[in-house]
Give the backbone structure.
Amino acid sequence: MAMTEVGTRAVVIEQEVEIAAPPARVYQAALRETGSWFYVPTEESAHGRSAIEPFVGGRFWRDYGEEGGELYGHVTRLDRDALVRIAGTFGNRFASTSVVDLAIEAKGGGSVVRLSHRVSGDVPEELASEFERGWECELANLRSFVETGRVGS
């Protein structure tokens, strides 16, 4: 038998994006239209659709079809038009857990979304970098979807 000790640490990833839509619309898209902007399948990569069950305790997952899928976490807090909090592994393969907040505030005639992703446990640099790059892409997708009705250019 072999046993390997891994280090533990905590990482906080914070990002924000401005969206030209009121907080209620951004909240609706973030919570109820997740499959339209989060990890959207492409021709090169058929990831399956993402979904959030819009209630405390609801699952956040990706459905691959044919009895496959991946549970990212569970909704642990909802504040209507203001906050979605999810806790879980977020699909990583390391012994770590995450808490992600999407905080939505009115700004001018639109909204600002502030993401905070706190991950602790076995968090190698590659995982932290993957989360950081991934959220940059997903927040851009959310903005594009809310503002134009589609993801991408």
